[in-house]
Amino acid sequence: MNYDIKDINLAPGGKRRIEWANNDMPVLSQIRARFEKEKPLKGMKMSACLHVTAETANLVRTLQAGGADIVLCASNPLSTQDDVSASLVKDYGISVFAIKGEDNKTYYKHITSALDHKPTVTMDDGADLVSAIHKERKDLIPQLCGSMEETTTGVIRLKAMEKDGSLKIPVIAVNNADTKHLFDNRYGTGQSTIDGIIRATSLLLAGRTVVVAGYGWCGKGFAMRAKGMGAHVVVTEINPIRSLEAAMDGFMVMPMLEAARVGDVFCTLTGNLHVIRKEHFEIMKNGAIVCNSGHFNVELDIGALEALSTSVNKDVRNGVDQYMLRNNKSIYLLGEGRLINLAAAEGHPACVMDMSFATQALATEYAVKNKGKLVPKVYDVPKEIDQWVANLKLKSMGISIDTLTKEQEKYLASWEEGT
Asked: Who has the most CB within 10 Å: 93, 170, 194, 361?
């Protein structure tokens, strides 16, 4: 078995972490039990490019239980939990190519290693595998029955590929499932981003002005949690509907050029490029803290920050770099601008990833069962999968809901009855 990890001897700690996460992932556990019996993925070679965390490990175990021959690589250089990588290799016999802090060259070498597995189905967290296949490994396209995409950023990239005719394989946008973005993005990102910022800085958010760039589901979750911690929250947006929603949710809304003057803590959650730029860094307060919780660190123009600086003090705290600007002010960058919830914390709680990864597993089963029937485009997750996962999650939480009576079903199906 090929693999490239930090240290195989870290496995015992990783196994404990995986088992702890599994305790709070009852829906995925039920799917794993069924997969173990039915083997719906038998004969499939899978390559997955995901955040290598304890929660991801339980997804990979589920896919393996379903019969898949799976290889895992990291989707972010700073999100890997090295003890989890070690346990996946030693305890579960899964090839992993991921080392926390790996440089850019190693990151792409690991993606190449995952593709050398010659997958028939892939799973992405940011579309790096699919992108590499279309640019450098077109030989793999004929054998691929589909790919799953977990992130908003990845879906944006894939939709762009579909629009210009570049997409050559079917992709299921798992991120667009209600059981993913309504919960994982809002509650998972909301809580874990706060967690990452506080772990990195030990900052009291109460009374501070927190600037949230982007009011999609991730931005909404983070803004909600920051407000709950007592922060004054400012939202910056380009979308008028979302801006209006943020205002009606009780947040101040203004352009980043105005927010840059008043913010104490800045976090980007947009999926776009250079959301915080040179002109913003120049007018920030002395001691402003800047971080990103979007998928790629390009949301922050780190090159511009470096150009404005006379010096950089690395790791003034773990994962905190101090940039000394020419105007005698300093700006603190967290986690090298990468996903702060994974660079400085442990990512989303297992409870919320239970739904996302249950949907991932079932979407993979759907793609395999429909091999040859799906054309090269971006598909939404079938609604019946969403509903099934939601019902199971409710059951695991001990929550019951109402069902329609026959009379109500008839009324909703009829156009003849009015008031």
From this structure: 361
- 407 in a labelled binding site: no
Does 295 belong to an annotated binding site? yes
SS3 at position 290 = strand
Pinpoint the alpha helices (H) of 66-209.
82-92, 104-115, 128-136, 152-163, 178-180, 189-201
Half-sphere exposure of 291 (CA within 13 A, CB side): 26
User: Does the predicted model carry a pTM greater than 0.90?
Assistant: yes
Q: Is 201 annotated as a binding residue?
A: no
| Residue 294 assigned to a binding site | yes
pLDDT tens-digit series, residues 178-224:
999 999 999 999 999 999 999 999 999 999 999 999 999 999 999 99
Contacts of 195 (CB under 8 A, 6+ apart): 341, 345, 346
pLDDT tens for 246-268 read 999 999 999 999 999 999 999 99
Q: Is the pLDDT of residue 418 over 70?
A: no
Instruction: Confirm or deny that 152 is annotated as ligand binding.
Output: yes
